[in-house]
């Protein structure tokens, strides 16, 4: 039997699911115990006590009907059945209540009233709301009678207290359980927050706490985070060392080429410059999003500075008006975001005539968009374009720059390090490539 349809009604958070696991068995057990106790104990005891009163009422009715007159009924009953402590008073038909009267929570009163109606033909109605006892109204041969007796003779006093105590202590124990449950789930929630922050490139202090299993998961996370950080650091140091070591022979080559004729040295000097640019791009790719620390920045102001620097460098790029109704700042690595946006702008002006940059900020999302009027990238090759060292010769003009295929790869890594994504599409405004860096706030 499939229970997939039930999933849409289940809580999605760990607090909700833990509370359901805690409350559902407790509530079911309380309901079952309460119902069984009410049926087996209250109803059984009430039936026995009501049956005893029925026999006494039958005796009282016989004595009352044998009285010489209606006015003599109280005196005759008191004289013959005074030991029963039952008061009998003749009443008129107008004094008879139209129905049984009792409080809404009087469970045993309903059981007794049904027992009276089933086993006593002379029974008319009963009033359980009177302060001086239970008033039972009977129809006898000498007219209507009102019988008053103590409530404790029919049923147990305050039977609703069982339900009140059950609910009260059930709620009390549930609250206590919630306190312990919250303390147990807090380390799990903290671990999830730290893992999410690390996925967005933020290093938050964390020490394992909670149960043994949670501590074990926390220690495993710390070990994994340390290994990843060491790997990134080693990769950066290795490529930095390679780049540093290669700068010396490149410098010697430049000095040697400077002694040659310009016609002979120019193509070789161009090769040296290309090698230098490749080394710089490799180093930038190695640094990725690990450079800098996350800090609260105003996204639109940051992008405005990047665009202004690109304009001063002679690039045809403009910044559109801000979009969205979001306010405030976003935690970003400024150097990494600058490198990602600058790479997108460089690609846009390299393969197109002009570029446009826009910033959308909402309460949940930050989107930085760069559009150009170049040839664009076919949809089936956009995933390939974000991989490192990928050059799409058919779709992007390679004669306009000596790239090594790391621009989009760097932007992709930086977006992922901030917990976001780089999306490529077709620009509706300019007709070229549209690159979006989308980061959740």
Explain what the structure shows.
The protein contains 10 helices and 11 strands. A hairpin with a 2-residue loop joins strand 3 and strand 4. The strands form 3 sheets. It has a 5-stranded mixed sheet with strand order 6-8-9-11-10. Strands 1-4-3-2 form a 4-stranded antiparallel sheet. Strands 5-7 form a two-stranded antiparallel ribbon. Helix 1 packs across helix 2, helix 5 runs antiparallel to helix 6 and helix 8 runs antiparallel to helix 10. With 441 residues, the protein is α+β, with helices and mostly antiparallel strands. Helix content is 53%, strand content 14%. The protein is rod-shaped and about 150 Å long.
Features of this protein?
441 residues, four-stranded antiparallel sheet, 14% strand, rod-shaped
Q: Gist?
A:
The protein is an alpha+beta fold and 441 residues long. 53% of the residues lie in helices and 14% in strands. The strands form three sheets. It has a five-stranded mixed sheet. The protein has a four-stranded antiparallel sheet with strand order 1-4-3-2.
